[in-house]
Amino acid sequence: MDEKLKILKQYFGYSSFRPGQEKTIDALLGGRDTFAVMPTGAGKSICYQIPALLGRGVSLVVSPLVSLMKDQVMSLVQMGVKAAYINSSLTPAQIRVVLDRACGGQYKIIYVAPERLLTGGFLQFAQNAPIDYVTVDEAHCVSKWGQDFRPSYLDVRTFVSGLPKRPVLGAFTATATAEVRKDVVDLLGLDRPYKVVTGFDRKNLFYEVRRPTDRRAELLRIVKDFSGRSGIVYCATRKNVDEICEMLRDRNVPAARYHAGLDDAERSRSQDDFVNDRVGVMVATNAFGMGIDKSNVSYVVHYNMPGDMESYYQEAGRAGRDGEPAWCILLYGAQDVRTQLFFIERMGENSETAAGNLNELQELARLRLKGMIDYCFTSGCLRAYILKYFGEEPPARCDNCGNCQRVLEQVDVTIDAQKILSCVKRAHEAWGVKVIMDVLRGSKAAKLRENGLDGLTTYGIMADVSEQRLRDTIFYLTQEKYLASSGGQYPRLILGERAAEVLRDRKNITAPLPQIESRTVRGEK
Ligand code: ADP
């Protein structure tokens, strides 16, 4: 039998490879640098662990996450593989012990944090060790275009070029847009790498975006629809996690919470309760999920919009790992944009970020945020949007996402368009979508009174139109360039380049708009 298949059975207990695994392993075994882009859950670890086990010497795995290293090393050790990790969770004395053993050739696989690569003790070990492979996990961290840029990933190249014998390099990531891919190859110094990209399409996931007026009520509806099944509710802030978890518990929904502000004991209890199905709902920040292998998650709700598509794809992708149909529902609210912009403003407080690069990094983060916002507002196929984002060329429709299944009706919006554009004009193009909608619908909000907006002739002229319909109409008019956004931190709704066709020419406009319907989850139970 093929050596790698033997190892797969003997150590990992699996009888066949998943898509992409065999090609990746063969390339590495053949001595070729390899760059694999595979979605979360595809099984990347095995792709570098099997070559490592078949190598004569030792293999290094550069990994950014302390918790992930620990998990991986623990499961390797349980399988009988000699493995260790070196990162900030160890004391200097413990690191010395690991390095001593490493120098004595006692390990097959060593996980190492990128910050450790160029430290004295590690370099000394590396100079004398027979290193077969250097694998870089989460390789997108080397790129400023990625969502988790780690300057210390740039040390990988320096480290490798200082070795007496060049090992084979492997780079792995779940998220790589075209710019990130180029950076990974260039900045890690991969030598004409063999590239493996397995599809990002998770066919069993149903993607949906909702823009509810009352998010809490919407969330409760979803959680009730899915009662008896496991789900994760992601929130943008710790405060939101606490509040939402409490709200669910108040309504007798067993929920656990998880974020970096809780003590270790509560975090591991929460995780345990959720993984072992003692509670159905996990309310968490993005701190939850990495390295957690729970296959029967039936739904992931984003109570807040994340900051970029990479994060969204990864977090939503924790649903349906068992291949059963699962739902990924994003609840969008305008406040989410402000929260994310606030996070971007605060990026400078991260000590790892070199000050000189800060503006550039923030600019890139804003671009990624825009990609995320566009996902929330696209009327096209959501799956196609995701796949295109990750560099694939999908069919225009999947017929299995919220947008594809939404029933559209052709609506004559000629008069509504005139009303909306006049309102934008009369408000001097100085306000965002929310305020313009409030004016048109005749809201009693104090902000309108204080700014004299309730005196505009367009005040209340669309009072009979539902908020959802008005929002959809404005979105359509923006897409068609009758309206536009000023951009910037507080985007204003302004007249678009085709505005004159509405205001002057009184052009007839028919828009395909989502039918007004009462929403239900299409989950068969
Ligand atoms: P990734 O790093 O790509 O997110 P992992 O390496 O953590 O994924 O693998 C995800 C899960 O799939 C793990 O539980 C792993 O044991 C399992 N897995 C990997 N390869 C196979 C395979 N060939 N057959 C069955 N299960 C596999």
Automatic annotation (TrEMBL):
Helicase ATP-binding domain location: 25-194
GO biological process: DNA recombination; DNA repair; DNA replication; SOS response
E.C. designation(s): 5.6.2.4
Catalysed reactions, semicolon-separated: Couples ATP hydrolysis with the unwinding of duplex DNA by translocating in the 3'-5' direction
Cofactor(s), names only, from the UniProt record: Zn(2+); Mg(2+)
Domain of life: Bacteria
GO cellular component: bacterial nucleoid; cytoplasm; replisome
Name of the top EC class for this enzyme: isomerase
UniProt KW keywords: ATP-binding, DNA damage, DNA recombination, DNA repair, DNA-binding, Helicase, Hydrolase, Isomerase, Metal-binding, Nucleotide-binding, Zinc
Domain Helicase C-terminal: 218-362
Transmembrane regions: none
GO molecular function: 3'-5' DNA helicase activity; ATP binding; DNA binding; four-way junction helicase activity; hydrolase activity; metal ion binding
Protein family: Belongs to the helicase family. RecQ subfamily.
Protein name: DNA helicase RecQ
Part of the whole protein covered: 1 to 525 of 622
